[in-house]
Amino acid sequence: MKDFLSLAKERYSVRAYTGQPVEQEKLAAILEAGHVAPTAHNNQPQRVMVVQSAAGREKLSRAANLYGAPLALIVCADTGAAWQRSYDGMNSYQIDAAIVTDHMMLEAADLGLGSVWICQFQPDVVKEEFALPQGIEPVNILAVGYADTSVQPASPADRHSRTRLPLEKTTSSERS
Questions:
Q1: pLDDT per residue over 93-150, tens digit each?
Q2: How is 46-105 classified by DSSP, letter by letter?
Q3: Is 142 helix (H, G, I), strand (E, B) or coil?
Q4: Cα separation, 123 vs 79, whole angstroms
Q5: Are 32 and 24 in contact (CB under 8 A)?
Q6: Which DSSP symbol is given to 164?
Q7: pLDDT tens digits, one per residue of 140-154
Q8: To 10 degrees, the CA torsion angle through 31, 126, 59, 49?
Q9: For 111, what's the count of Cα atoms within 13 Å in the CB-facing half-sphere?
Q10: Residues 101, 75: contact at Cβ < 8 Å?
Q11: Is the pTM of this model over 0.85?
């Protein structure tokens, strides 16, 4: 079992998958990770649609590039169920969906699966193809499967020291 920081550093966006399906017990663990994810005020507005069938993936591919993944999780949110900040009315549904997606993405990595977080998709096509009810908004898609490292080699875990801004550029301390 890896420590969290090692897992987070080793995970990378997989854009090439083998045809091997994701086992049901692994899918169940991924969904459980999303289920236990924190949401604002614990309102749990997330609605996750599991897409595994060839027909379902074909419908979803009309809206997004799934990179050949055998499994896609459409992470949606019920905008009416999400918490709203009283001061300015900010609705937390996108934040909540992002937290849920992150938990599922990291669980997939812990299980030896690859994933890619997809935000570049056509929401109207997803809504139409999957007959999403009014108020259910697709926020992002998580493609999941076994990485095909013969097509896309794994990214080195130490890449962050080269690809990320220095920590002091992205953090600050309060001033007295």
A1: 999 999 999 999 999 999 999 999 999 999 999 999 999 999 999 999 999 999 999 9
A2: EEEEEE-SHHHHHHHHTTS--TT-SEEEEEEEETTTS-B-TTT--B-HHHHHHHHHHHHH
A3: strand
A4: 14
A5: no
A6: S
A7: 999 999 999 999 999
A8: 20
A9: 24
A10: yes
A11: yes
* Cα–Cα dist 52/60, whole Å: 10
* Contact between residue 147 and residue 14 where contact means Cβ atoms under 8 Å apart: yes
First-to-last C-alpha distance (Å) of the chain: 42
With a cut of 90, say whether residue 176 has pLDDT above it.
no
Backbone Cα Rg of the chain: 17
Backbone angles phi, psi at 92, to 5 degrees: -85, 5
Going across the sheet that includes 136-145, the strands are 46-51, 71-78, 136-145, 114-118
Burial code (b: 16+ CB inside 10 Å, e: under 16) for 83-95 equals bbeeeeeebbbbb
Q: Give the mean model confidence (pLDDT) for residues 152-161.
A: 92
Provide the pLDDT for residue 1.
58
